[in-house]
Amino acid sequence: MFKLIVTVIIGLIGGFTALRLKVPAGAMVGAMLSVALFNVITGNAYLPEDVRIVTQIAAGAFIGAGITYKDILDLRLMIKPAVLMVSSMIILDLLMGYIMYKITSIDLITSLFASAPGGIVDMSLISSDLGADSSKVAILQMVRLMSVMILFPSLMKFISSHLTAWKNGNGSKKEACSDLLSASSEVDETVNLKYTTKEKYVNLALTMLVALAAGLLGYKIKIPAGAMTFSMIAVGILSIFFKIGYMSVNIRRITQVFAGILIGERMTFADLISLKSVILPAFILLIGIIVVNLCIGLLISKVSGLELITSLLASAPGGVSDMALIARDLGGDAPKVAILQLARYICVIALFPIIIKYVSSWL
């Protein structure tokens, strides 16, 4: 219990410090870095596995509360970008894994699994079944996840704000950046104005109860990201048909902090030491992630007409709930990001092991 309390306090301090410093996705990034540092130094960071489920449920509830009838009509537009994103990502990530294999001492199967845009645990477990070095896969997947959380919010804010200013032709990069950062807070303010204080508390309680029941059901039937998906769908139904789906901004911040803690507490001193042996492949992986994400995001935005920031976040190889939460902070369309991220996650888990098996045997 003492370790849990200390871990949460450190995560809260790191998260809210980063928010005060106006770091993009600061609550998540700050909590992740502070808890990772704490765990590397002491090895005492601890968060129960149940918290991951509750965090996913809360993230799904927050996304669902922002879903409108227009979002449902727009779902038919998601098929094309989803197919494009998944197929492009598989091809480019396989290419990145092959390049890593050719210029490092890591074997082909390990390189391919390390480059796969799936979860750390999922890819590590699956890779061991196919003869890969699961410890290297886990370390490189950790590098991928932490790099995405630390670098991508700032990178995407920079790219989106500069392209927006360029497209508008007014040269006012500062205004574009300000508009981007204030987009989600404007949405939250609009939502808050719908209800009186009493209605907010009642709707919040109903939303959380529905999200918890649906999320636990999704978790029990063991579908990928089931807790978040079922929670999002259930609260989305509340929002669309009954107009009572509501989650406060403060709860979103707390959810982001716990999401960051969950990532940070996985980083250990042993992982840090192990990074010495994978510095080159980790660097290749990091550069590859950035290039692949930008290429796919720009392609999706151009072909499908989705906003650039939404396309970039949807193609970022982070967690489904993590990217959706960050989307709200950076002015992206969180429901669309969640849908495309879920499509990526399911397809990677379902297809990547089969593809890697045949590619490795062919090569």
UniProtKB/TrEMBL annotation:
Coiled coil: none annotated. The keyword Transmembrane helix applies. The chain crosses the membrane at residues 28-46, 53-69, 81-101, 108-126, 138-159, 201-219, 225-246, 278-300, 337-356. GO terms for biological process: regulation of gene expression. Pfam families: AbrB. InterPro entries: AbrB_dup, AbrB_fam. This is AbrB family transcriptional regulator.
